[in-house]
Amino acid sequence: MVSLRTRLRLVSVLGLLAGIAHLAFAGRLLAIARWGYDTVLAVDFDPRPNATRRVRLVGVLFVGLAALVGYVLRVTDE
Predict the structure, then answer these.
(1) CB 45 within 8 A of CB 33
(2) Runs of H (alpha helix) within 3-50
(3) How many whole angstroms separate alpha carbon 33 and alpha carbon 21?
(4) What DSSP character marks residue 39?
(5) Which of 23, 26, 30, 43 could hold 59 in an S-S bridge, CB 3.0 to 4.6 Å?
(6) Which of 17, 7, 20, 1 is nearest to 72 (CA)?
(7) What gap in Å lies between CA 37 and CA 45, rounded to an integer?
(8) Cα–Cα distance between 19 and 21 in angstroms, integer?
(9) What is the pLDDT of residues 16-63, one digit of tens each?
(10) pTM as predicted
């Protein structure tokens, strides 16, 4: 059985990677969403103005939460 500590570390690393992806590739993520909506759901995906900024904001939140989980892991390890 995987310990809670290991799961939290994994969540922290994956959150950091997801945050970096949202920050670095916001436009590409929106293009992938547009393609997915068109291909899978057969509907039009028309992002609103400032959608790229909101995707980057989600990235900042991911990075912040990953940092918080990492901090809590370090503090409780002492």
Answers:
(1) yes
(2) 4-24, 26-36
(3) 14
(4) I
(5) 23
(6) 7
(7) 6
(8) 5
(9) 999 999 999 999 999 999 999 999 999 998 889 999 999 999 999 999
(10) 0.84
